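Q: Convert this sequence to structure tokens.
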Amino acid sequence: MRGAMFRWWLIGGLVAAGSALAPASAAPSYSAAGTGGSNASSASSDGYAASSDGYSSGSDGASPDAGTPEITGYGTSGEYGTNAGDDGDTGDQDDSDQGDSDQDTDGSDGENSDPDDDNEQTPPTSDTDPGDVGDTVVSVRAIRSGQSNGGAAPLTFGQVFARGAVPENDSIHARVDDRLLPTQVDAKARWDDGSLRHAVISTRVAPSGNDTRIDLARVEGDEDGAGSPLRIDALLASDFNARIEIKARGTRYTVDARDLLNDITASSGGCSDWGRQCKQWLSGPQVSEWIVGGPLEGAGGESSRLAAYFHIRAYADDNGEIERARVDTVVENNWAYPDETRNAQYNVTLEVGDEEYRNNGLKHYRQARWHRVLWWNDDPGLYARIDTDYLQSTGAISQYADVEPTSGLLNSVRQSVAPMNNGDQTDYMPTTGAQAAIGPLPRWTSAYAVSGDRRAFRWMLANDDAIGSYGVHYRDRETGRPLEITRHPYVTIANRSYAQRAGSDYQRDLLPGCQGDCNNPYEFDISHHPSTGYVPYLVTGDFYYLEEMQFIASYVQLWANPEYRDYKKGTLRGAQSQVRGQAWSLRSFSDAAFATPDDDPMKSYFTQIVDHVLDDYNDTFVDSDRSPLHVINNYGAVIYPSDGRERVGIAPWQADFFTWAAGHAAEQRMPGADKLVGWLADFQIERMTGWQDDPTEGYCWLEASTYSLQIRPNRGADDYDSLEEAYAANFPELVGTRCNSARMRLRMGNMEGTSYQTGEMVGYANSTTGFPANMQPGLAMAVDSDHPDAAAAWRIFEDREVKPNYDNQPNFAVVPRSR
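A:
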């Protein structure tokens, strides 16, 4: 038995990675369009692509011939921060990190070696006394790209620090060997003990060769960079310019960044951390970043749908003068409550200094957005290669096995996407079976997490940009931030038809229906949704990716039936019936709570959501001991039939996803998560070890990865009292047979019409997306709990004879920290 001008407006923060398919007629002027997705529309009659969260018998595991395909090519250019074209560029040999080491190289035999090294500038230094700088906390590598001019150049990146590594009153300073570099630390979030959790770090370095190791060392005392922060008037004193022109339905909108900045300097409000007219994201003598923008205005008045923003990051040279600026221009069609809502089609031109980007005939989907980075006065051409092993050790992401993507894969993957292109994301996410984006982290992000390779980094950014093409972005015009259910407790997408009839509070929060063309070839699905924006934000420090992460977490809440989520509390048990949907939703909430800056108005919103969610699970399951099997057994979880009896079984692999999500939240130190994962762990551990006390009657680990498991005798009955009882009900043919014996394997083969090797678990044991692989992250989190049989459970799992090679698909290659 076996998912023109801008009107100043509220700006809650930067806008997110949005890129999706531009039709052939909308190809950028300098390139060919990327590959496309389905032409079928997934929009409902009112324009809402709200997929059902009902029962689906499909799984996220797969047989070898149904697994995630090898993804190749079709990428659309561009190293992070460069002005590369959407020309289908993929990683290549010359662009790899091959030959990189922890030792500095002289550049004589590697990529981008500079024949004029003698002409390099004198390396920049810091005024800090070297004697005040302590031990190295972590190192970062500055790697040259083909665009680097070989001189001193700025470098900005995000860095997560382990709890306690940088105490509350201390700071960080960058150095190369014994030479201190100018360092600016924009602290964003702190751990519960006050120590630094996440910061955006900027420095200035003259790389020696292609690969320069930069040590980030602890400095006692909260060291601020010497000098005053770069100011807007200093940028305006230069010849900096950036502008956007959009032509839509005969209306021309032209916006000049200098005009916006001039308005800021003329206003009394200036630019503040969370200002309405201008948001200050970075501030210091090395770099300052300002975000300006809002709804577009043209000769015909304000656009009811389109908005654009300039994210202007200005860098100082060695003399403190502004020498260059990075401009991330973001275009949105995503107001939550616009006067009219539909797709838009337009021609767009972006100009920043001498760089230009054009896209004609671009169809911009509703609730979607896209962005483009261009440079004024040249891209410095440096890539910050973060120590991803250290990133894993902080608890921000899971611990991964020692795997390494092959150069063959990394040389073939996309490096960016065109606007309104879904990249490698699944165009119809409700599709069951394996998807490249399913897992604790998607394939591209996990490839980056285990390698740090620049090609994997670009691949990750490209596909997080691609989520911008999906209709899941709802910006509140009153706050400028992603829509919050605390402000709109009756908002819903899934139950909009009822809300439309209900009136009263529902009417007040009712999202507008479509007025015109709202077709989008891409459909999002909460039960299959990927981690988005989280890791890119942590390692780049771009608020752009932070906000994309916030939009996804916001959408998960506003999608649900208000009553089922308990209105503004946002609980998950009823809101997301499928356990996998609950798992990935919990991940999105806890990631947003973990990464959102401490002074961001969204911080308290997400932390309160996580508190409500975890309290609800602990009250319902842990404190009441509702299930002797230690599983989530709400109505939407117990959906599988057995022997003609309806709704008596669960999907163990979905339970494994949820245990991972709870464990991930615990590693992020979300209150209550430890308690929840400690309770859940029994289900993973005992499926691996139940046979040890009774090798013929106890639960045999070969069946731990079964697709479905009957947990009660009849619909509505109490769960079985033990896994041994469940094992007997599910596998009567195996009871009385010694676990992993030749006779057991023969009987398993007869039951399923196949053959099994010694130590081969059911469910495609050698597949990177099979059910044993699906089990692995949850088991890893369970093993890190205090369960007495944890070590034995992992030893059995790790020593099994048949298992996948995760090198090129590390989505599920999570391992215990205690192994």
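The radius of gyration is 27 Å.
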